Amino acid sequence: MIIEQFKDEFLAHYSYAIVSECEQKIVLIDPSRNPEPYYEFAKQFEAEIIGVIETHPHADFVSSHLEIHQHTGATIYAHSLTGVAYPFTPFDEGEEINFGKIKLKSLHTPGHSPDSISIVLEHNGQDKAVFTGDTLFIGDCGRPDLRESVGNLQAKREELAKKMFHSLRDKMMKLDDDVLVYPAHGSGTLCGKALSTANSSTIGAEKVGNWSLQEMTEEDFVKELTTDQPFIPKYFGFDVDLNRKGAAEFKPQIEKVKTIVNPDPESLNPAIVVVDTRPENLFKEGHLPGAINIVYGKKFETWLGSIVKPAERFYLTAANEEQLQELIGRTASIGYEDFIEAAFVTHTGDVIMPVMPLEYFMASPDDFTIIDVRNENEVKKKTVFKGSLNIPLGELRERIKEVPAGKPIVVHCAGGSRSAAGSSIIAAELGAEIPVYDLGGAVRDFNQAEK
């Protein structure tokens, strides 16, 4: 038996292949949008992919379960409560999948969602591992507030938090201490708030180190779990519904994205936003009118799906062809590839952002309107500038009218990447009336000064 863990570092997502070497068969759990890595892995063992298990309809990425089924004939397994639109076999509490010496057993573990399951792997008659989806993470458990308005089954966060309390204690903690824990996410995901950087653990270790498994009342657990969860990106509800339907095939979707060479700016539709992924210094030196600077980096998908709402058309542009093609694929990982009006490489543009007058700002901060685009829970922990106005980046386009235009504007976040996007959004609206500056990485100096 082999357990192979695959990682999407950008979305902090783990998926799994379970191999029966004696039968040369594979079952996948929570696969990413691009199925090619799983096909290549199967070829290494000359093995057949016979099943794909969805622990729940994921909110933060698009799964390739339907495409894998269509290409390999693999059976898709999910809980019957999910209400899917694709052909599947119910994998409810007590159901089993047997292949080789492996038995996969379904546990219904609601809490992150009403239809969440965890999968216990039994080998040679002993429980060896549990694939916990978004129920139990390393150091944390899944957030309960993503199904209040999406999916076929909706539930209030307090109701799901209570279910999580019991799922962890009545199901997870009943497993043997030496059972390995393999979650669907690691540190960096927005599906929890305090995940470890580790990619696996054991039930015994989690009983010791995971706050959610400690002795406490249900009331205290619910209060802790529902407090200070991360923000919810705009695309999360869209992905839940798309995963319930099953996404279109990855490669054809990528290939049909329209790419253009050296577009005339006059030919672009001014009503369609330009997502410019170049480094912030290049963007500031020259970009297209109305462009938003979502910098190429580890969190591109998260901020694209937080700033641009589902079904909104956008142009995608990058510093070079290699990055452009990569970003088209990463856009597809959250199901946004159909919304790309066209993709192209950009080197400059006619719109220039002013250079931050740092010395003047340090001497006279009251002469500026300071916009803090961090999330509310970050601001609660620490305010960098007194009198600043907090509008989280994911809400900024919708709340742009709240930004006063009486004084020059300085935008900051925690480290510099979000302020590049935030300042570009505000500049697109107010830049013709008043200077808009990005404090960028210089905010770290102010953070240090506060210590």
Automatic annotation (TrEMBL):
UniProt keyword annotations, A-Z: Metal-binding, Transferase
Tell me where the signal peptide lies: none
MF annotations from Gene Ontology? metal ion binding; sulfur dioxygenase activity; thiosulfate-cyanide sulfurtransferase activity
**Species in which this protein is naturally found:** Pedobacter steynii
User: Among its keywords, does the record have Transferase?
Assistant: yes
InterPro entries from the UniProt entry: Metallo-B-lactamas, Mito_Persulfide_Diox, POD-like_MBL-fold, Rhodanese-like_dom, Rhodanese-like_dom_sf, RibonucZ/Hydroxyglut_hydro, Thiosulphate_STrfase_CS
Q: Does the keyword Transferase apply?
A: yes
Where does the source fall among the domains of life? Bacteria
PANTHER family, per this entry?
Answer: PERSULFIDE DIOXYGENASE ETHE1, PERSULFIDE DIOXYGENASE ETHE1, MITOCHONDRIAL
Query: Which Pfam families does UniProt cross-reference here?
Result: Lactamase_B (PF00753), Rhodanese (PF00581)
Query: What name goes with this protein?
Result: Sulfurtransferase
Q: Which GO terms describe its biological process?
A: glutathione metabolic process; hydrogen sulfide metabolic process
- Species lineage: Bacteria, Pseudomonadati, Bacteroidota, Sphingobacteriia, Sphingobacteriales
Q: Which residues form the Rhodanese domain?
A: 268-294, 364-451
